[in-house]
Amino acid sequence: CERQDFRASKQRLLVVANRLPVSALRRGKDSWQLEISVGGLVSALLGVKEFETRWIGWAGVNVPDEIGKEALTKALAEKRCIPVFLDEEIVHQYYNGYCNNILWPLFHYLGLPQEDRLATTRSFQSQFDAYKKANQMFADVVNEHYEEGDVVWCHDYHLMFLPKCLKERNSKMKVGWFLHTPFPSSEIHRTLPSRSELLRSVLAADLVGFHTYDYARHFVSACTRILGLEGTPEGVEDQGKLTRVAAFPIGIDSDRFIRALELPQVQDHMKELKERFAGRKVMLGVDRLDMIKGIPQKILAFEKFLEENPDWRDKVVLLQIAVPTRTDVPEYQKLTSQVHEIVGRINGRFGTLTAVPIHHLDRSLDFHALCALYAVTDVALVTSLRDGMNLVSYEFVACQASKKGVLILSEFAGAAQSLGAGAILINPWNVTEVASSIGYALNMPADEREKRHHHNFIHVTTHTSQEWAATFVSELNDTIVEAQLRTRQ
Ligand code: G6P
């Protein structure tokens, strides 16, 4: 009865993420142009129908003046978004520094950048202070907009300090936190100077979610080994307070991709691509240009395949879409040059006057062009060195209903746990293995391709992003209800 009352009225869901699902471009003193990005999280939340959603996050731009801030806040309000304004120095220390130069590589088992190791060690404290300060700023905005009965869902490694900040401001707030990256083994996590503070802060949430059971297990082990707390099948217990910890594997809005394939503009794109690459098999990589994606490893494996299989040299092409990201972080700048150098060398080595084996693009494609590309692909290559889930593999599968192409998938992507039976799993560090998997995939008989595809297609179309979000939010609500009932007893 308690539960029903809770669900009867339309609750508000405050989604707090580092970035808003909107990019803002300043057009004048008090005018802004907004562009909505229909990312995974946005479509996921369309599934949470019983809640009214508000977004809170950084607008991604520096707005030093009050007129600009006021105008942007007003424009964003129409999109149900609420901005957190971070100045350049905070962004540098919090986002480029602590989030993307420390937590991101560490959570993906890459350690600190080699040359920067000492420098990072020295600047660690100031970056962590900025991280906490930024999280406090997010908490202030959440607090300002919070109304009794709202549910607050915090996202990702940028906001690990947020659950604690929110609970300190209002202990009755319902707070969930979800990590979109892997959570590393406790042996890796314990190298972080701020290891305990971060864990304790996350534990302030009522529900903590991860993409896979392994990440959840690593988190619980970190809490038991580093903090000395008790891990239970439900989560982590600290002096009678239980923080529920569980796996909630994300998915995609598969219908959106499947429907797009019927559109005339997508069909036109497909026709163009088929003509352009007629007589050649198409292999595809779609990644943010990030060191965790294993792009150099993928290209080197492709080189090895061409080296060992001269007959294939004019019969296959690798299209690599590498979307630039975090371009102010030196490690990302180095990666860009490294990838360009390798692609140039291989194209010089195996290219002819009329064709090159690798088409490398440093930019994103619009949604329709991307769907067309997925649909005409024979073999998709996902070589992440570590990846929370990797939704590119899901998107590819969703667009392959008629072609039934092959997915080569890193065993270090969360998706390997759900698409493992249909994909060819590889260790991206083993270039020889990846090269021979490329050969296997290109030569795979149709009946095997169909079977593998069928397995993955069923998974991708039944485990959608909408279902993911609805499950997390409903469990968050239930957790709180249980907690309230406990207090009442
Ligand atoms: C990963 C993170 C997200 C992040 C995205 C893009 O998927 O888990 O939280 O938004 O990368 O990175 P960016 O730094 O551009 O926001």
TrEMBL record:
Signal peptide coordinates: none
Instruction: Please name the top-level EC class of this enzyme.
Output: transferase
**A cellular component term, taken from the record's GO annotations:** cytosol
> Which catalysed reactions does the entry list for this protein?
D-glucose 6-phosphate + UDP-alpha-D-glucose = alpha,alpha-trehalose 6-phosphate + UDP + H(+)
Give EC number(s), comma-separated. 2.4.1.15
What GO terms are given for molecular function? alpha,alpha-trehalose-phosphate synthase (UDP-forming) activity; trehalose-phosphatase activity
Family affiliation: In the C-terminal section; belongs to the trehalose phosphatase family.
Q: What is this protein called?
A: alpha,alpha-trehalose-phosphate synthase (UDP-forming)
Q: What is the name of the gene encoding this protein?
A: LOC111278609
Task: Report where the shown chain sits in the full-length sequence: first residue, last residue, total length.
Answer: 96 to 584 of 943
